[in-house]
Amino acid sequence: MATLLRKIGLIRLHDRDTEDPKHHQGSFKGSKGNQKNNNIKHCNTSNESNILNPPEIKNKKSEQSTKDKPSGKDKQGKDIKEKQQVGGSKATSTSLQPLVPHRQHCTQVRTRRLMKELQEIKRLADNFITVELADDNLFEWNVKLHQVDKDSALWQDMKETNTEYILLNISFPDNFPFSPPFMRVLTPRLENGYVLDGGAICMELLTPRGWSSAYTVEAVMRQFAASLVKGQGRICRKAGKSKKAFSRKEAEATFKSLVKTHEKYGWVSPPVSDG
């Protein structure tokens, strides 16, 4: 019986030790297995501390370094702010400076362009046109057209009437050369040739729609000379009418009317019913 009880106790001890590892670890603290497990556990904690602690230290150092030194974004933002401040100060300084008025700028552009064209016209070898300033005004020219097609009836009229040139007046607006000049015939009194009442000239390139800043006065005058011949222009020889001078006011009104007509119908002849 005693032997049986011992066996049962041993079995229970064995089962309890194998089923409850915590009890096993607690009951055998001085055993080699416990020392081994404790060593393993200690090594693991030491390893964990070695792995986890350095990044924390680095993070703290990096945080301190970021506090001491601005990051790339912060530095970039700081640079941008400094540039903005500098730019703002420059902008304010420039804004305090008086700006050149638009009208003054246009006048400078117009003056340079017209001075250049005057020099180029003086260099013309064929003496096609000559220019005189009206009342010493750079922005208003009296242009003499000395030549037209020598095979034309207009040239024959000039020879027969001893007309040395056709005189035109050209006024340059404030925004020339970006807007066309106003050009009209002064003398002699012409018929046809796209010359209308008051000496107004019917040419598309003289309108805002047909004008280009690349056109020079010389080019416009050559086009005008060609249109005179193409439109069969003649010098008026009718008694009383030939001596009547062209009027600027009438020319401006006529030109305004013809521009309105051509904007409606294009640069073709309008219907007869519309006059």
UniProtKB/TrEMBL annotation:
Residues 109-268 form the UBC core domain. GO terms for molecular function: ATP binding; ubiquitin conjugating enzyme activity. Its EC number is 2.3.2.23. Residues 15-98 are annotated as: Disordered. It is an enzyme of class 2 (transferase). GO terms for cellular component: nucleus. It comes from the Eukaryota. Residues 32-52, 86-97 have a biased composition (Polar residues). InterPro entries: Ub_conjugating_enzyme, UBC, UBQ-conjugating_enzyme/RWD. PROSITE patterns: UBC_2 (PS50127). One of its GO terms (biological process) is protein polyubiquitination. Keywords: ATP-binding, Nucleotide-binding, Transferase, Ubl conjugation pathway. Pfam families: UQ_con. Residues 57-84 have a biased composition (Basic and acidic residues). Interacts with FBXW7. Probable E2 ubiquitin-protein ligase that catalyzes the covalent attachment of ubiquitin to target proteins. May facilitate the monoubiquitination and degradation of MTOR and CCNE1 through interaction with FBXW7. This is Ubiquitin-conjugating enzyme E2Q-like protein 1. It comes from Lepisosteus oculatus.
